[in-house]
Amino acid sequence: MALLEVDGLRVGYGFPVLMGISFEVEEGETAVLFGLNGAGKTTTVTTIAGLLKPDAGSIRFNGQDIAGKRPPELVSAGVALVPEGRRVFPNLTVANNLRLGAWSRRGNHKEVEASRALVFDYFPRLAERVDQAAGTLSGGEQQMLAIGRALMSKPKLLLVDEASLGLSPSLAKVVFQVMAQINEDGVTVLIVEQNVGVLPYADRALIMEKGTLIYSGVGEEIREANLRESYLGVHE
Ligand SMILES: Nc1ncnc2c1ncn2[C@@H]1O[C@H](COP(=O)(O)OP(=O)(O)O)[C@@H](O)[C@H]1O
Ligand SMILES: [Mg+2]
């Protein structure tokens, strides 16, 4: 049984967007979902996180049907989303943004403190800026904070929508390396990306076009150059 099993998922906004997609993510993997703008990547991860209701199909997480469950219930079950555009609360400090990420575990001070320490381990820059308003952070730091905030709920599955968008190549690499560390520490990761620089870190790649999955592969095959050229429009 895979940790995440999506089967025949159809979602839209009054008009169809996801045309019945099926894929799995095994526990312990880093999966990457690629696709051009408008392909349906955000629709996919926001539906998994419970923010949109599917029109048809099933989503199983940890063996349980979660399609249509509300986001708070899903956070408690172990699904956390880093939304596209890294929506941190700009007027709140780094510390308070992180605290909000732990709302599902309130009362559990020791464990929450341990998660906070872990986030500062992953992102030492956040520790240096703990009392700074999130809105004063750089784009890269805000992305770190958005990931850190999601980690405060102690997820089993971390969904990251456009992890590297707007970051410099070197900062994107830092984010990918930390994502790899988070994965190493036992969190299953699904990253939405348009940057093929993430491929070295991926166990599974999915490519989406116009609401359908046009490629799905695992292991070494996904690092072959023709994947980039055939599906991602990257020519080297
Ligand atoms: N809130 C929304 N209301 C109406 N249409 C939307 C909304 N969000 C996305 N769409 C449409 O759904 C399609 C897929 O969008 P999205 O899932 O955001 O793609 P991606 O993340 O791959 O860029 C696009 O045609 C987009 O215009
Ligand atoms: Mg998107």
Q: How are the elements arranged and paired?
A:
Elements: E1 4-12, E2 16-25, E3 30-35, H1 41-48, E4 56-61, E5 64-65, H2 71-77, E6 79-82, H3 94-101, H4 109-122, H5 124-128, H6 139-151, E7 157-161, H7 169-184, E8 188-193, E9 204-209, E10 212-218, H8 225-231
Parallel strand pairs: 3-8, 3-9, 6-7, 7-8
Antiparallel strand pairs: 1-2, 1-4, 4-5, 9-10
Helix pairs in contact: 3-6
The chain binds adenosine-5'-diphosphate and magnesium ion (MG).
How big is the Rg? 17 Å
Number of separate helices: 8
Structural class: alpha/beta
User: What's the rounded overall pLDDT mean?
Assistant: 93
Main sheet: strand order: 6-7-8-3-9-10
Helix content: 25-40%
User: What percentage of the residues does DSSP assign to strands (E)?
Assistant: 25-35%
Biggest β-sheet description: 6 strands, mixed
The secondary-structure element order is EEEHEEHEHHHHEHEEEH
How many beta-strand segments? 10
How would you characterize the overall build of this protein?
The protein is of the alpha/beta class and 236 residues long. Helix content is 33%, strand content 26%. The chain is built from 8 helices and 10 strands. The protein has a 6-stranded mixed beta sheet, sandwiched between helices. It has a 4-stranded antiparallel beta sheet with strand order 2-1-4-5, with helices on one face. A hairpin with a 3-residue loop joins strand 1 and strand 2. Helix 3 packs parallel to helix 6. The longest helix has 16 residues. The mean pLDDT is 93.
